[in-house]
């Protein structure tokens, strides 16, 4: 199986984490939600698989292109 590093497409604050390492996911499942300028933006799985690791914590500030989770497809 291949792993994919999923990066944030925007800068923001981690509002909520919906999945944990080891959780199975389907394509387009929300893995975490970022807040940016009072908007909630879900970061979704680009494909089905299993979460290897979540690289951020709730409340963290993330930068654009920062690694947020690793997905095994």
Q: Specify the helix fraction band.
A: under 10%
How do the strands of the widest beta sheet line up side by side?
1-8-6-3
Low-confidence stretches: none
Q: Please tell me the total number of domains.
A: 1
Brief description of this entry?
The protein is an all-beta fold.
Q: What attributes does this structure have?
A:
0% helix; mainly beta; 4-stranded antiparallel β-sheet; OB fold (Dihydrolipoamide Acetyltransferase, E2P); 73 residues; globular
What can you see in these coordinates?
The chain has 73 residues and is mainly beta. The chain has one domain: RNA polymerase II/Efflux pump adaptor protein, barrel-sandwich hybrid domain (OB fold (Dihydrolipoamide Acetyltransferase, E2P)), CATH 2.40.50.100. The protein is 0% helix and 55% strand. A four-stranded antiparallel β-sheet has the order 1-8-6-3, with no helix packed on it. A four-stranded antiparallel β-sheet has the order 5-4-2-7, with no helix packed on it. The chain starts with a strand and ends with a strand. The mean pLDDT is 97.
List the helices and strands and how they pair.
Blueprint: E1 3-7, E2 12-17, E3 24-25, E4 30-36, E5 39-44, E6 49-54, E7 61-62, E8 67-72
Antiparallel strand pairs: 1-8, 2-4, 2-7, 3-6, 4-5, 6-8
């Amino acid at each position: 199986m291949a792993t994919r590093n999923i990066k944030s497409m925007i800068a923001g604050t981690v509002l909520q984490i919906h999945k944990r390492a080891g959780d199975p996911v389907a394509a387009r499942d929300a893995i975490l939600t970022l807040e940016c300028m009072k908007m909630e933006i879900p970061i979704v799985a680009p494909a089905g698989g299993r979460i290897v690791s979540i690289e951020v914590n709730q409340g963290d500030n993330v930068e654009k292109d920062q690694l947020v989770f690793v997905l095994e497809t």
